[in-house]
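so i finally got all the pieces together for this one. its two components total, 410 residues if u count the protein bits. some of the lines might not be protein, just check the labels. i wanna see the whole assembly predicted at once instead of chain by chain like last time, that was a mess tbh
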Amino acid sequence: MTPDTPAPRRRGRPSRTAETTGPDARTRILEAARTEFAERGYDKTSVRGIAKAAGVDAALVHHYFGTKDEVFAAAIEVSFEPALVIPAVLGGPPDELGERLARYFISVWENPVTRAPLLAVIRSALTHEAAAKVLRGFVLRRLLERIAAELDVPDPTFRAELAASHMIGIAILRYVIQAEPLASADPEKIIEMVAPTLQRYLTGR
Amino acid sequence: MTPDTPAPRRRGRPSRTAETTGPDARTRILEAARTEFAERGYDKTSVRGIAKAAGVDAALVHHYFGTKDEVFAAAIEVSFEPALVIPAVLGGPPDELGERLARYFISVWENPVTRAPLLAVIRSALTHEAAAKVLRGFVLRRLLERIAAELDVPDPTFRAELAASHMIGIAILRYVIQAEPLASADPEKIIEMVAPTLQRYLTGR
């Protein structure tokens, strides 16, 4: 589909100006998608609703991203961008890999801007199979397997998943369930406790 | 409210026989509640719907359990019953505590009967604040703090929460997201890798 493909319904379609196309429109669509998925959940979010929130035509959303699943994948990509994550985690001394991974992960969750799409992912993936599939394909294949490829251990993907599972669980207890004292704990205290676990999974024996 | 309190609407109300009261009715209500919460999620589950599925009057559900939150707490209690969990986890040599905790946790998840309410809890708690509050109050205060009370380490509740977070994350990646190879991994392989982590959190330094 191209931007010239007519939208199914043209009612209220904005005229195509610099405001509704180009890189700014793409960014606005992604921001709107993150907000919609985070606030409404996967089921209740529609391409039409995202387009409306971004002030663009639904056809433009389809043009840039394709289906709702593909908008979802693009919206959460910012939090798992391999070009950002891989150097931040894999660069540096191998014996500090666990600490770098814990620190990167906590920093992404402590920042409200990057936290919102993560919450959307986790909530959506647990209640909607399509979102779970996106998470499996996207995060696991693109991110975990690239980290696993750098590891010199048996079963590297299994080990990377164990590390990821721990960080997902911490995010849920700390940021979603908000269980105390974990929810109010100093991030450095969490990193100090968790880093040796991740280090053992990723490089141990 | 007692069983003699009239239901708001008596249409279709079954006559009170041995079938609709007593311990069997209580068990049927809990089973129906687990199924309803697991299949419909927290929001869409109602006391009326649970009563219908159990073949009893809604007033009887209120009588035994109270509000929807209280039915939820009772329904998930079977998976976190301190009288079952505490001896299984805390009984035995202290240096095998991590392995016992990992083994108990995996066994509860591997059993479809006890897995269903856990899935209901996790899905509901992540999308509904009332369910999150039940999980905080119930699981954390009744279970984690009792385990923490037995630990001879600084910040025992924080450490018990780190252990719990890892197990929650494994459950999500293995049973909900079904990420491979973790989803198909031999339970013993997971226990072997995770037990030293839990042991360090619960008894280390």
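Chain B touches chain A through 42 residues (CB under 8 Å).
Confidence is low (pLDDT under 50) at residues 1-16 of chain B.
anyway lmk what u think
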